[in-house]
Design a protein that fits this description.
With 392 residues, this protein is of the alpha+beta class. The chain contains 9 helices and 23 strands. The strands form 7 sheets. It has a 7-stranded antiparallel beta sheet. It has a 5-stranded antiparallel beta sheet with strand order 2-12-1-14-13. Strands 4-5-9 form a 3-stranded antiparallel beta sheet, covered by helices on one side.
Length: 392
């Protein structure tokens, strides 16, 4: 994989999948962008690097372009990211896992709310399965919420501890309200750039502060150069990263101790670094319900779910270029199918049941740590990127 940084020149805007039309004067965005947004940027960069687009952005050779970047049905790339990165220190930031709370109000150290799976921790409910009760504090959890992002080094420490670990919160973005206008698409199709009178809206754009950009890994060579990114098409600069494969170089330092802890406790956590899209909906593996437990066979391990912190599902869709390249009527725009995704930061805690060898656990960690759970084209776009963390 090749590592790259994306440096913004100006504010950025990444639209969510909530319907927005004129008549509404305010739209909302997301940060960081979904992999479905970023993969379009990478594809565009590859086409530009290979001189496949004319001055108006139309493909010069459709067949050759499909061979380079695929189409709506095929995706011949492999992408990890994007993740915010400090352009000076090269430190990468991850959305903080949802099982984390501060131990006290001074936020000096943090712990995982997942329990050890004792029999008296079971919560009875009207669901089809049982789950363990989270270790919630006497203080209001809202007062103990961790920073939204944590550094990659802190993540590496978190994954081998369930309490008394540190998070160095960093201020990454600020929000700036910007006014947008609507183009007259009929005249724009004729090559005349003008706007429709009276049609404007307010957009909360993101300014990445303190020398922050994006980090990604791609299995293709990208040329250094400028391109537009985001819903408002603001310029960024793509360049080769100074430090290659930061994720793997950092995470492999704790992989051995992680494996030892999993063998000792027979429990582990799976953490989503990017949103997850799975054939089983909210659950990352094919599963069955046995004695009111969600059980799965993954590799050589038999596992059952102990607890989960997932948050509400995200709605992921996208714009189909193939369906709309000759269409400028915004009322009839065709979108790709909508899917539900589990948000980045979602955590699942599992218990290993039955017999398992040291080699079985080592193979499981090797197969899934800093990997993507395969599912159609979504995992290749960057979805389903996970790490393994120890359990209690």
């Amino acid at each position: 994989m090749n590592s790259y940084t994306i440096v913004p020149y100006d504010v950025l805007f990444f639209r969510n999948n909530q319907s927005f039309h004129f008549g509404q004067w305010y739209t909302e965005g997301i940060f960081p962008p979904y992999p479905s947004t970023f993969q379009g940027f990478v594809r565009h960069k590859i086409l530009r690097d290979n001189d496949m687009l004319d001055a108006r952005g139309k493909l010069k050779d459709v067949a050759k372009a499909q061979g380079l970047v695929g189409d709506d049905a095929t995706f011949p790339l492999d992408i990890k990211g994007p993740f915010p990165v400090d352009l000076n220190t090269h430190g990468i930031f991850i959305q903080t896992p949802l099982d984390v709370l501060a131990e006290t109000k001074d936020h000096a150290s943090y712990y995982s709310i997942f329990p050890g799976g004792k029999p008296d921790d079971i919560v009875q409910s009207d669901l089809e399965y049982e789950f363990d009760c989270h270790l919630l504090p006497d203080e209001k959890p809202a007062n103990l919420t961790p920073p939204a992002f944590m550094g990659l080094e802190d993540l590496s420490n978190y994954r081998v501890n369930v309490d008394n670990f540190h998070i160095s919160g960093a201020e990454i973005i600020s929000i700036e309200q910007r006014v947008g206008i609507n183009h007259d698409y009929e005249k724009l199709n004729e090559g005349i750039r003008t706007v429709q009178p009276g049609k404007f809206y307010v957009t909360p754009c993101v300014r990445m502060i303190n020398e922050t950009g994006f980090y990604c890994e791609v299995d293709r060579e990208l040329k250094d150069g400028a391109l537009k990114l985001g819903g408002e098409s603001h310029p960024v600069y793509v360049e080769k990263a100074t430090h290659e494969n930061r994720f793997e170089e950092t995470l492999k330092q704790t992989r051995e101790i992680l494996t030892e802890k999993i063998i000792g406790t027979k429990t582990f956590r799976i953490v989503l670094l990017q949103p997850g899209i799975f054939p089983e909906g909210w659950f990352p593996f094919p599963y069955n319900k046995s004695v009111r437990k969600i059980a799965a066979r993954v590799g050589n391990l038999d596992i059952e779910l102990v607890a989960a912190a997932t948050g509400a599902p995200l709605k992921i869709s996208g714009y189909s270029y193939a369906k709309n390249e000759k269409n400028t009527d915004q009322k009839t725009v065709n979108l790709k199918p909508m899917v539900n995704a589990m948000p980045a930061g979602s955590v699942y805690m599992f218990r290993i049941v039955g017999t398992s060898s040291k080699q079985d656990v080592e193979k499981f960690v090797g197969d899934f740590d800093n990997r993507k759970i395969p599912y159609e084209n979504y995992s290749k776009m960057g979805f389903n990127h996970i790490i393994i963390a120890c359990g209690r």
